[in-house]
Amino acid sequence: MLLFPGAHSRSVEPLVTSNKLFHTLDDSREWSKMLGIGTIGSLNDAIAAGRGQEIMLLQEALMEQKIGNLAAQIASDDKKKFVMIAGPSSSGKTSFANRLSIQLIAKGRKPHPLSLDDYYVDREFCPKNPDGSFDFECLESIDVKLFNEDMNRLLKGEAVDMPSFNFKTGKREYRGRKLTLGADDILVIEGIHGLNDRLSQLIPPEHKFKIYISQRLHSSILTSTILFPPQMKDLYAGLCVMRAHEVPMPWRPSLCGRLSEREKGRISFLSRNRRM
Q1: Strand 238-243 with 82-86, pairing
Q2: For 90, which of 71, 97, 189, 195 is 20 to 30 Å away at the CA?
Q3: Which of 250, 258, 260, 211 minimizes the C-alpha distance to 233?
């Protein structure tokens, strides 16, 4: 086993295991075997051979199965009223929240998707970066006090006028969207700070179900030189989904970029040469 040096490089630091991450990566490896794809080259070969649609459909089926299992786990516990979903920007949090909501409906629950973006403070109060740009990713950009007040009122069965953030005006608005949580209702909340306990500090832990979501490549596929187009992220990257109680935050992995036509042609060229 290789241990990377830490703060005290002359002594071996205690081994800290990441069981959830290990099992997630193990699932990813099994998916890779099932798909018959272990490298970028074999993925390109499969696409060139016309298997792209088959791979995407199988990946979607596996993902839907995992989401269904999560929904069953949530629905089995009547105390769970807030599903907290976190992950980096562009990781698919909103899409995942919507898909999880469909599965929760199938399990007899009444989900209400909620974006933490709607709890942004008005733009004039948003913290700024050293260069003067707005820092929309820090916790202080969210009205934590109002969020906790609204969630606890919902937990008590009260009717709450839910906010909507207008990104054009930079103001929080109220558009008459009233919400009350009944016995089968559950809030599906998504945002980069979804797992941050400072965000939901006044919500009792037994009412929260935490999920971390991110794109993750199998180690044999991962490369620091290739950029993947966002519209293909479900094909190139297995979605990492795990229940989380202690996930290091903030974790900001580099995100997928857009390939130029020249780069696409180069990958296709390399794939053809590999088969020759």
Answers
A1: unpaired
A2: 71
A3: 258
Residue with tokens 């099994």: 30
Q: SS3 for 201? A: coil
Q: Which residues of 206-242 are buried (b: 16+ CB within 10 A; e: fewer)?
A: ebbbbbbbbbbbbeebeeeeeebeeeebbbbbbbbbb
Strand partners for 212:
86, 242
**117-149, pLDDT tens digit by residue?**
999 999 999 999 999 999 999 999 999 999 999
DSSP string covering 38-55: -SHHHHHHHHHTT-HHHH
Query: Which pTM does this prediction carry?
Result: 0.70
Q: Which residues, other chains included, contact 58 with Cβ-Cβ below 8 Å and sequence gap of 6+? A: 34, 35
The amino acid present at 16, given as its one-letter code, is: V
